[in-house]
Batch of 2 targets.
Target 1
Amino acid sequence: MSIKKRKIINDPVYGFITINHPLIFSIIAHPYYQRLRRIQQMAMAQLVYPGAVHTRLHHSLGAYHLMCNAVMELRSKGVEITEEEETAVKAGILLHDIGHGPFSHALEHIVVKGVHHEQLSLQIMQVINEELDGQLDLTIKIFTDQYHKPFLHQLISGQLDVDRMDYLSRDSFYSGVSEGVIGYDRILKMLVVHNGQLMVEEKGIYSVEKFLVARRQMYWQVYLHKTVVAAEKMLVKILERVRAIYREEDEMLSTLSDLDFFLGKFNGEMNTAALEKFCSIDDHDVMHAIKRWSKHPDKILSLLCTRFLNRKLYKARIQAEPFDENYIEKKKHETAEKFGIGMEDIGYFCFTGEATNTLYQTKDERINILFKDGTVKDISGIENALIQQNLSAAVKKFYICLLD
Amino acid sequence: MSIKKRKIINDPVYGFITINHPLIFSIIAHPYYQRLRRIQQMAMAQLVYPGAVHTRLHHSLGAYHLMCNAVMELRSKGVEITEEEETAVKAGILLHDIGHGPFSHALEHIVVKGVHHEQLSLQIMQVINEELDGQLDLTIKIFTDQYHKPFLHQLISGQLDVDRMDYLSRDSFYSGVSEGVIGYDRILKMLVVHNGQLMVEEKGIYSVEKFLVARRQMYWQVYLHKTVVAAEKMLVKILERVRAIYREEDEMLSTLSDLDFFLGKFNGEMNTAALEKFCSIDDHDVMHAIKRWSKHPDKILSLLCTRFLNRKLYKARIQAEPFDENYIEKKKHETAEKFGIGMEDIGYFCFTGEATNTLYQTKDERINILFKDGTVKDISGIENALIQQNLSAAVKKFYICLLD
Amino acid sequence: MSIKKRKIINDPVYGFITINHPLIFSIIAHPYYQRLRRIQQMAMAQLVYPGAVHTRLHHSLGAYHLMCNAVMELRSKGVEITEEEETAVKAGILLHDIGHGPFSHALEHIVVKGVHHEQLSLQIMQVINEELDGQLDLTIKIFTDQYHKPFLHQLISGQLDVDRMDYLSRDSFYSGVSEGVIGYDRILKMLVVHNGQLMVEEKGIYSVEKFLVARRQMYWQVYLHKTVVAAEKMLVKILERVRAIYREEDEMLSTLSDLDFFLGKFNGEMNTAALEKFCSIDDHDVMHAIKRWSKHPDKILSLLCTRFLNRKLYKARIQAEPFDENYIEKKKHETAEKFGIGMEDIGYFCFTGEATNTLYQTKDERINILFKDGTVKDISGIENALIQQNLSAAVKKFYICLLD
Amino acid sequence: MSIKKRKIINDPVYGFITINHPLIFSIIAHPYYQRLRRIQQMAMAQLVYPGAVHTRLHHSLGAYHLMCNAVMELRSKGVEITEEEETAVKAGILLHDIGHGPFSHALEHIVVKGVHHEQLSLQIMQVINEELDGQLDLTIKIFTDQYHKPFLHQLISGQLDVDRMDYLSRDSFYSGVSEGVIGYDRILKMLVVHNGQLMVEEKGIYSVEKFLVARRQMYWQVYLHKTVVAAEKMLVKILERVRAIYREEDEMLSTLSDLDFFLGKFNGEMNTAALEKFCSIDDHDVMHAIKRWSKHPDKILSLLCTRFLNRKLYKARIQAEPFDENYIEKKKHETAEKFGIGMEDIGYFCFTGEATNTLYQTKDERINILFKDGTVKDISGIENALIQQNLSAAVKKFYICLLD
């Protein structure tokens, strides 16, 4: 009996994850992939949900595991997926989030202003692809939706992809928010391919509804929880302050890491050199910097950093309607006075914003249901469905944050 | 209806943790306590078990939750515990690990050589106690076992304390190692107090056996897993190397954090100033330093750091007998040659060591079983028990680690 | 230390259930209560979900456990609940379903035509109350909503009572349908009492939404699953056939149990003698009877029984619109021909019906949300709520069942 | 895309069980298999663990699921298993317990005295095999260990077979006894075949230890729990009493089921007619009979039955040493006097017995560990193993049961 190289990884969410292909081993061993170990999936949600400290690497392995199952299920239903395609789509899901930077979404638009993480994922894939002599060619084709079997792309990125299935499962597991639990295994068993498109069997409707409702709950209860928002905004304000007072010669601002480049010289152009720097920064650089900046002479910066470290966050309120302008003005003045700062800097101490969540985005890709008689309907168009057109409109909430 | 200030925290392990006393709020809000959020409970175990990234803060909250239940159970059995004692013992468990430094046990004897974390916990408690005007007086009495109800101390620190119950439950939960699951709720229900001592009812014997076996499994399968050992040793070797080449004027060694003090000037005396510095360092400082040192001109240091970051760890073997001296010598020479270093430095690249685990330490405090007829027996003295005298001897394993 | 009489019961859903009051012990030891051990909670759902074999007794113990928690939570928020009220409301939840007969809802209107199980529960409570010298006086007052603290009644029977919380939790646990999982512990923590009425704190809105959606899912996916409906209808048809051909002198129909009385002489009047007989029948009598009747000379009866035992159930279809009359007629004729029976008996072999489910019944008692500013709103009236007026209308589905 | 006939079954223990082969469908649809739905796996354990009401059918489906996984794992390691063998071994595990009668082990030696359930399983397999035109030929060869790949037999029946893995997992799940949880998925991943024999990889040692310890815990805490023993003994005594007073013309003894045959005429010879009768009896017949007998004029019989139904069981004590003869005599006389019965009948009211459990049976088939260097060792022979020779001796406990 010959034993193929095979590794199993314990995962509290799914039990065991199996790795058994050389390309997958190569990707996981890559320093750029290992970096994901140092980036928390849920950024500052851990300030409210102390268990939510899992990493991007763990999420990516989990999504890979679901992809393995999805491929197996689809094949058992007669969908043709070649071995090459299987490996490619697995590599794709492993790498789908490789472009995330420190604290994931929380800092996405601050650290590398104007560059979306999916674009970065693609660029990094291309770099790794070169190192691997083109072994990721097919992966990249699928990732960019240029392959003739669209369902493979949809498994990586779509309304019902394994990325979402994993992050909902994992985030609810680690945060302990049972409202976010989804029946991922049942959804996987209900997937079908029809005319090349990924769909869900008729009897999977309730699981899909459950999935959409769970997502909604996670948004309001966790991702957009007012204290989570307050914490992530504080992180953003800290970086904004650093940018505002940045001078290369200010040694106390220097983080002694490649983060310095993105705080200073970076002009939005993500060339090879910039990309390499990007691939070397992680949560630790940001946290170390904040600890350092908490002693910076700039009063605003040091105050924000100290309070962030000690979890004395902005006080936040969130509500369905915009806050009254007079109320906002009053709060701003009170806060400015309390902290002895000028109104030109009040934005660091008191500000408003909007949080948006959509139960189901009909404009985006749809979740299609395949009925036994062969007809296909969008989930929102099914009679008596929980998810109806009127519910698929975006829901906006308004928040105000202030230091007290 | 008046609502007392009360906060509930989601915990994936136990559901919800309730905080409802001003002193407990004060402790949790303290910067020294919040620091535990930045220290991982299981250090480098996450390199093998990617889910094992929970923090000291989370463990401490969990142990607090079990303490709440233990107090409630004991009271319902007629054990007298005053409100003051209740609060004190809860505060004690929250603070029992406050003296842990970066990466907990992994670096315990390296960062602050010669100072045990329990000693540090006590010192820090005393500092906080002063700030809180003596509100922790009783806590400290109980923590140092100077209170006339020894069972309160035993709940915090003993063979069957809530600390162990939580770390086994939490570590097995987050690592996904089901072998470590214990019946903590059943053990709690079986606790009794007899002559002031904490004991277990007769019908709790199997749960205690299960607890001891689970602990054993966690040691061999997780805490002393050869790759975990390899990773933690690498961390130790990195810090040892820094110490060996330390010169204050070497800017490239500076971490721009209070860690510098412990790498350099610290002489083992933990005075007020040193303690304050200690309370400001955490995992991020170490990780940031390692990233920085990976570019240090010292070849040994930079190599170790780079490999650590990219998870190219020592290759480890572990076995029941010591390794043959000739074998070790051979390996050392091969390794020295491979990396072009002198034999005086081979200890950074190839070394041996011992790992020890004890199923049940009869010398330590015992786990006493209270029989229905009022007799008390040590668990290892019970006929047909799984845990017998011969099994309570320490089991030693030998490992060799080398870079390849 | 004196140990009060106390018993703990393992429960896979909640961990441990604690019994510690003499009245509760008396109730549980009562033969009428022990009878619930022989009645399955989910009737024939086990023919689709093989794990769903838990009993009424288990559900009742589970609801009791949640009641213990609910009382503790409400008290910790300052709601006054005396010890007497506590015991009474716990006794009430234990007994709330004592009036269920064999196979619970499936046979409710067949075995004791015209008598609702809640009415029977009350009658049986009164019998037990007499035996217990009036110890259930307060329980009965609360159960019948004649007590001046309506929230106690609402905990037993209301839109958000512990009965529903337990059956959803337990049924989804035992059937393995994760879609039905609710955050019962979070809902319990969010309960408040306002003006004597049970309500939910503002931040519990999402948990309530989740609860309502989970209930909806359980209805369509489990309770009204077409095969479950088919199985339960077969049970009903079997009993209807027995009634139709009943003659006291037909020995082959006799079940040698008190079930005979309800198949024959029972006239709808539930007097003391009838009630005693009712309290002696359970699932085993029905199953034994079906096995016996499978050999009865009446061809229709024996066929239905044999197929029921061997799980060769009606083939069922379910859809959003009523079935076409012509289609039904055609099916009936085909079936009659296939089995060689007359059209007067076709109702045993082919029939249609309706299944109804309501997401949230606004006409019934409401789920009220208590906002921080003291206002109270019905859950369906909250802006952006998932559960809106238009969704609270009943959803009807239509099914056809036939033997093939 | 063609969809092969495929069915998925929700299972709370494993998630989903997939059926996708015509032979497996045939077996599951067979009335003899469906009968297992009416036999509880854990007999009277539900009187102590109310959740433990799962059925033989459910266990059998669960073991089948683990077999599917085992086959997949072994194949992925290069073990050759043909499609025919795969189906045969799956059919074998489905049918391995088909020979169980009412209340499984509890009544095994009472209902069909002298016939072991494995012998009955084989006979029933042969009957079904004939109906299926020999499709079970290979299954029977494997089941009787006459096939040239012994590991296939060992997967069905051995020290580490999927039968045990499922019953431990399922019994601990349904009873809520966390001490019995095993890492079945890890054990499955560690299985290997060496020289045709089923073994465990070296790194699976701890999982095997855990498995053996869990089994031990389940025996003492559940299967041999003193109240469970008391309940099952009461069942046995009831049937013994019926046998003792049996006269065919005693109508009040008749159960109106094939159970009558085994109480009366059955002479130990399991011929075709007897087998057919055997395959028609289940728990319901016994329970119905007990309800009926509770009104029988024989005072001993009716008393036992009434107390059994109302859960007024024997009071049991269990201890490590045999009970003192004088003590036993005294108890017998007291009991006889209390109930006014003669000493010739005291065995129904007061009796002693032994319960035996073995941690690991070295005499039986062994659990072999395959080391990386190719050597094979029995688990009990491994240095420092938890399971040592001295622990593999049978542990005997002594109990006394009496009515009070």
Target 2
Amino acid sequence: MNAVTRRDAVPPMPAADALVRLVARIRHEIPLTAAMGLEAGTLAGDSLQLRAPLAPNVNDKGCAFGGSLASLMTLAAWALIELRLQARGPRCEVYVQDSGIDYLAPVWGELRVTARLAEGEDWAAFFAALDARGKGRLTILAQADHAGMPATRMRARFVAKRALAKAT
Amino acid sequence: MNAVTRRDAVPPMPAADALVRLVARIRHEIPLTAAMGLEAGTLAGDSLQLRAPLAPNVNDKGCAFGGSLASLMTLAAWALIELRLQARGPRCEVYVQDSGIDYLAPVWGELRVTARLAEGEDWAAFFAALDARGKGRLTILAQADHAGMPATRMRARFVAKRALAKAT
């Protein structure tokens, strides 16, 4: 594989404004994320962050509602894949297949979730499978931190399927 | 163990109005559940159902948002334990420890989730542990159905801890 093919197979992380546009689209298309106050966080290296204020996501104990954390982790993982697909193509539908979540400690403030590829996963293999078979799978890790410690951890498998071309 | 002790150890399923009151409390204390349109479903045998309309929980594909389904399954499982604790005591805090979810098929209408004890679990052992050590664990299954088929399945572990008596 030469350098040009390699670059084509693994697009660089998109710019931060791509995440801001994606979050605006998510808030428009999934009303519950607007109710959560979903916001774009940072894009750093190979990770993607989403945030939400505590007030609309608080539970009966005064800390973050587990359902909000689960939603935010799933959205961050989905967004990590979606942004790469937007940068390179093909146009796909991306679905979560299954997820496992550990709730380690409460989150007593703003919800901040970071998603990254799981160990052993790589974008080149994902795009190669998509190109060859129209379908690719990825395992993503997402984590919410509080006071510098992990508060919730998710491991989730996603599948991307090439969207059918619209009949014109 | 005689019949009286047994009845005390395992209280019967609470009446439907207890679930209606619990859902009103959840909607008041967890604002996102009001945004979801959370409603009490049926209490049948040893299972508890929660419901929510599709409109506030729709995703970009027109079916139910995975985060809403995950939230609803976690709430139904939590409510199953909370109602039994209300009926028998002691007063406890109930937390989710970890959960695994399989997303099998989309839900194209009202979200309906049913929670029940996992195989091998029983209320008597849970209350015995609570009475002896102030702490009990339970594994709960929750499922969303669509068109008579399972759409999402959750297996989650919860811990209940006896609440400390308030200083007066």
